[in-house]
Task: structure prediction
Amino acid sequence: MNASLIRELRDMSGAGMMDCKKALEENGNDIKKAVEWLREKGIAKAAKKADRIAAEGLSTIEIDGNKAVIIEINCETDFVAKNEKFQNFLKDVAKIVLASNVKTMEEALELPCEAGKLSDYVTNMTATIGEKISFRRFAILTKEADEHFGSYIHMGGKISVLSLIKGANEEVAKDVCMHAAAMRPEYVTKEQVPEEQVEHEKKILTEQAMAEGKPANIAEKMVMGRISKYYKEICLEEQDFVKDNSVTVGKYVSNNGGKIVDVIRYEVGEGMEKRQDNFAEEVAAQMKGE
Result:
């Protein structure tokens, strides 16, 4: 077997050495047929990985003029998230989505790219890398002339935050992103918190106050105070600003002539079932070629 032919096929396909060797053997050393053979086998392998847990990965942000996109792509292990091919794939997908006007994941996966459709690109990466790759979510923001984008990427993409601020400047917009990365707000404003969520919290706080033996009128005042504290925990504008806790984030932005329009925070794998690693099982699976 020609070693240089195997190496060429590896460079073209990204597949492993033994897979390339077998592909060439099965196709009479015809490299074009071998690439197709690997693609077919790769797609089959990718399908087998579809039910695996992919809760690792990276997020990123791309900005071009008046448009910005934030995306998250998942894989099975942190090792793959550090892989250059995965990181380049992440950037490619972000640019493809940013150049479009899609609103749903279904539309995004139909976007054209060199692999055919974006869904094909995801499948091919699963086959090439050998782990389940999942394009989890994205959001596109557009800004007006008097608005500014802010962006902050933490730990290489484990957390990404994109902000849109009316007025102020990019520095203020980035400060808001850095605060959100650290403090994990669930909402931007109090008004965004669903009424049923607030009522549920009030019910719990009322029961706590009554259990402390407080009279109903005192309990009601305690609940209102505790609800204000609850808002400070979950609402970005109500939180004490990390760089200056004498003001809230909302006040910091308004003091600089701005208003928060939107903030999107992605933390990789949040809300997803995490993979439970079993090294012995993983090695056994690799030996079986799974």
